[in-house]
Write a structure and sequence with these properties.
0% helix; mainly beta
């Protein structure tokens, strides 16, 4: 096992939709100075940085960006006073991060104190002050794709009030509308050959696919890969998503207490990894060998004792691929 500090390890059985039964282990990250679980209000947007061997993630409702050092187990925190922070991306050739705060994208300099660390890049959904950027990732050409969500009260979000955008270094002042309307843009990833973009608008309960043109940054041919309501998740929604080295999808199921392993080619659920919490928010591969699936969760509106913990799922037999980075020349000087 790695030197990442964990509080407990559970040998687990999930539910196999196919005929195979799998064994795996689930770990829960603890604080570096105690044996207590590291609990967050609403952890989201996990991103593995292979350069620093760290996991970045946000606690959206506490307006914090966190960095978990894999080898020491220490968690570092950067507070954003300006507003809710939902998304992180690494930036190619830069020590800055790209973060979404409210409905705007900023560069974040970790070593600068306070909100002076933020440098505004662009704003989405102007004229809609209650909308927030909810999800975003970079593609293979370094563009950044991000989607918003409409006004929210409790667990309810007004439908069809949001938009899915893309930006590049050339277009960041004029974000390109890719889909409108959407309700809650969530899981986002690309096939290994970059010919398909996978996307989730959570209230649809669907994992969807588009033909993807990586040169021009265009999508077309929208279609359904999986509708989770057809697999016993009638009261749940798909949330964050990642891809493995076989091109299979891994999807966090909010309100469903699961991570689904999906084969998008056969449009089947391979396996459902059950967690001891209901509100599962997102996933990403990490660890030195990219064979540990980090899973973020939320304790907002939940009384489950382990809600808000960061879990890792090991021994799945699967491996991740490095995440793309946002490309912006001279980002350190912007």
């Amino acid at each position: 096992m790695s030197t990442l500090k964990v509080l407990l390890i559970i040998a687990c059985f999930g539910y196999a939709f196919a005929k195979n039964i799998q064994h795996h282990k689930i770990s829960m990250v603890s604080t570096s100075d105690s044996n207590k679980a590291a609990i967050f209000t609403h952890a989201e947007s996990p991103v593995w940085d292979d350069h620093s061997q760290s996991l970045y993630f946000v606690d959206a409702l506490q307006q914090n960006v966190h960095r978990l050092d894999y080898f020491t187990g220490k968690i570092y925190t950067k507070h954003i006073g300006y507003g809710q922070v939902n998304v992180i991306s690494l930036v190619e050739g830069s020590n800055r991060l790209l973060v979404a705060v409210r409905a705007a994208l900023h560069f974040l300099d970790w070593n600068v104190a306070g909100d002076a660390a933020l440098r505004l890049l662009t704003t989405f959904d102007e004229g809609l002050p209650d909308n927030l950027i909810n999800e975003g990732k970079a593609d293979s050409n370094g563009r950044f794709w991000a989607g918003t969500k409409g006004p929210q009260s409790g667990d309810d979000v007004l439908p069809d009030k949001a938009t899915f955008y893309s930006i590049s270094q050339q277009t960041f002042k004029n974000p390109q509308i890719q889909l409108r309307p959407v309700s809650i843009s969530n899981g986002l990833t690309w096939s290994l050959n970059n010919s398909v973009m996978y996307y989730i608008d959570s209230p649809t309960q669907k994992i969807e696919a588009f033909d993807f043109d990586p040169i021009n940054g265009e999508i077309s041919g929208r279609r359904t890969v999986i509708d989770i309501s057809e697999y016993g998740y009638e009261d749940a929604i798909p949330d964050g998503m990642t891809i493995d080295s076989r091109g299979h999808l891994w999807v966090a199921i909010m309100f469903g207490g699961s991570v689904l392993h999906i084969d998008p080619d056969s449009r089947t659920i391979v396996y459902a990894y059950k967690l001891p919490v209901t509100r599962v928010t997102s996933v990403c591969w990490g660890g030195p060998n990219l064979d540990e699936l980090f899973v973020t969760t939320s304790k907002s509106h939940s009384k489950e004792p382990l809600s808000g913990a960061i879990f890792t799922i090991r021994e799945t037999g699967s491996y991740g691929v490095p995440m793309y980075r946002f490309r912006f020349d001279n980002a350190n000087d912007y």
